[in-house]
């Protein structure tokens, strides 16, 4: 399964560990932002993120403790885009906005639960 990982940039190392585990289980992670050390913010990278979300079958939204109401918002855009495209969405952590309460969003507490949900 192709999976996009959305997370606060400051939690990138944790997201990379999740990516590694998913790949070891045979999944393809489409999140190029986890595979390139570039911190460039420009049109190309924004389009890459949208393309990577569209290329995924599912989106893991990492809403880790302490980050429920923080961050720059890119992960929220990715979440909304995946939702609009009808992608399967697994929210890992706590709900923190109205869209997390949609029935289409599976909410789990841990990465292991998220992986089991696949």
Structure described in brief:
The protein has 118 residues and is α/β, with parallel strands linked by helices. It contains four helices and five strands.
Q: Which sequence of SSEs, written as H and E, runs from N to C?
A: EHEHEHEEH
* Number of beta strands: 5
Q: What top-tier CATH class fits best?
A: Alpha Beta
CATH topology grouping: Rossmann fold
Task: Assign an overall shape.
Answer: globular
> How many domains is the backbone divided into?
1
Query: Can you name the CATH architecture?
Result: 3-Layer(aba) Sandwich
User: Biggest β-sheet, characterized?
Assistant: 5 strands, parallel
Major sheet: arrangement of strands? 2-1-3-4-5
Output the CATH homologous superfamily: TPP-binding domain
Low-confidence stretches: none
Mean pLDDT: 91
Strand content: 15-25%
Number of helical segments with 4 or more residues: 4
How far apart are the first and last residues' alpha carbons, in Å? 8 Å
What structural class is derived from the secondary structure elements?
A: alpha/beta
For this entry, what is the oligomeric state of its chains? single chain
> Which percent range fits the helix content?
25-40%
Radius of gyration computed on alpha carbons: 13 Å
């Amino acid at each position: 399964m192709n999976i996009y990982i959305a997370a606060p940039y400051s939690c990138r190392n944790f997201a990379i560990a999740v990516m590694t585990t998913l790949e070891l289980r045979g999944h393809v992670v489409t999140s190029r932002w986890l595979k390139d050390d570039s911190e460039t913010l420009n049109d190309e990278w924004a389009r890459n993120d949208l393309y990577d979300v569209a290329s995924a079958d599912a989106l893991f939204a990492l809403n880790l403790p302490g980050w429920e109401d923080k961050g720059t918002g890119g992960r929220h855009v990715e979440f909304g885009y995946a939702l609009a495209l009808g992608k399967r969405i697994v929210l890992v952590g706590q709900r923190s906005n109205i869209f997390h309460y949609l029935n289409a969003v599976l909410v789990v507490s841990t990465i292991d639960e998220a992986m089991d949900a696949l």
